[in-house]
Specification:
389 residues, two-stranded antiparallel ribbon, globular, single chain, 14 strands, 15 helices, 8-stranded parallel beta barrel, alpha/beta
């Protein structure tokens, strides 16, 4: 049964080598906002290890969409480096996608004065670098950001990416619109879920129309934000149905809100010591040292930890779904397969060992040796994501 997962699988208008997707996880492999050879090598190693589709994370659609100033955004310069990445991944026999996103208010990007958001809210992430509040987006801002997503999508399509993923989760801009925690608008873009989803769905529709029906467009979407007063499973069902009707090729279901429940997605240990050391200022490091244990909640890890939530969405809406969350063994893969999910998305097992899938397929191992210490999260800000064990 496991062997079935290693057979070719259609995604929109393309054919993947198998059912496995490398989920977008921030690599931190950039120099002055441009992709590096390390980023290319990282994704080449992953497709050589047997992944059908690898996903480059966090392609900001504009300078304002970056969480911090040295991050990459999609422009003429970055597309040159990304073109080499695409060529190398495809030469290695794999397919490659890129995640397109905008951080909204969740920013330390000091090159902008007022981060954009659905409403004026306190910026927990950037307050200690002089960005304490967001700017509520005007209708003109909404149109501009929508067009930035479109331009970025066309740009990466033209250099040969096989697919794109629009990020609607984890507390970034489109997620901020979906969540009542951050969306307090009184116009047609705020209130009940039909209104809160209006702008994210408009972005998706515009992008899909621009790239064409046969070009795969995936969406990363929260199952829930992981706290009371946030985006819920019922909201997820509504948005999933609408995305299906608009031609979404697959959902990558995830969860958590980066500024409030960051480890709702990752589960396991909280690498607080490293997070403190990585603080951008003395004030930030001191704040994390004093209040980090109370601010950053720990969630217990167990295999396939999102399965019950994901099954609820799957039972209500027909749309191809990539299951993400705690797949760490052959046994876990078979469980996901039996539940009828269309794809399996992996992250930490592949960060630990890019040959994880080859070893599973060849029965060299039964499960990953990743111990969910989450120190790889700290390494993202230390020159590039890697496993410390």
């Amino acid at each position: 049964m496991l062997e079935e997962l290693f057979k070719p699988k259609k995604l929109g208008g393309i054919l993947l080598n198998n059912f496995f997707i490398k989920s977008a996880t921030y690599e931190g492999m950039y120099a002055n906002g441009l992709p590096t050879k390390e980023l290319t090598d990282h994704h080449v190693s992953i497709v050589k290890g047997g992944v059908g589709l690898t996903t480059v994370s966090y392609g900001a659609v504009s300078n304002e969409g970056k969480t911090f100033k040295d991050q990459m955004h999609i422009n003429t310069e970055s597309l040159v480096g990304l073109k080499d990445l695409v060529d190398q991944v495809q030469l290695a026999g794999g397919k490659v996608s890129i995640q397109l996103t905008h951080c909204g208010y969740f920013s330390k990007n000091v090159t902008i004065k007022s981060p954009l958001a659905p409403s004026r809210v306190f910026n927990e992430y950037g307050c200690l670098v002089g960005l304490p509040f967001s700017k509520a987006m005007t209708l003109e801002d909404l149109e501009l950001v929508k067009q930035q997503f479109v331009r970025a999508a066309i740009g990466v399509q033209q250099i040969g990416f096989d697919a794109i993923e629009i990020h609607m989760g984890h507390g970034y801009l489109l997620s901020q619109f979906l969540s009542p925690y951050t969306n307090r608008r009184k116009d047609k873009y705020g209130g009940h879920i039909e209104n809160r989803a209006r702008f994210p769905l408009a972005v998706f529709k515009a992008v899909k129309e621009a790239v064409g029906k046969s070009f795969p467009v995936l969406v990363k979407l929260n199952l829930s934000d992981g706290f009371k007063g946030g985006f819920t499973e019922e909201d997820c069902i509504y948005v999933s149905g609408k995305l299906n009707s608009l031609g979404c090729d697959a959902l990558v279901l995830s969860g958590g809100f980066t500024s409030k429940t960051p480890f709702y997605l990752m589960r396991g240990e909280v690498p607080l010591k490293g997070m403190i050391e990585n603080g951008d200022s003395l004030a930030e490091r001191l704040t994390m040292k004093l209040f980090g244990p109370f601010i950053v909640k720990k969630y217990e890890y167990k295999p396939n930890f999102f399965l019950n939530q994901a099954k609820k969405i799957k039972s209500k809406v027909y749309i191809p779904i990539a299951y993400l969350g705690g797949v760490d063994s052959a046994k876990g893969m078979i469980e996901i397969q039996k539940e009828g999910f269309d794809f399996i998305a992996l992250a930490r097992p592949l960060i630990h060992d890019s040959n994880f899938l080859l070893k599973i397929r060849n029965k060299e191992i039964e499960k990953t040796a990743c111990n969910r210490c989450n120190e790889c999260v700290v390494e993202m800000d230390r020159g590039g994501v890697r496993c410390v064990i």
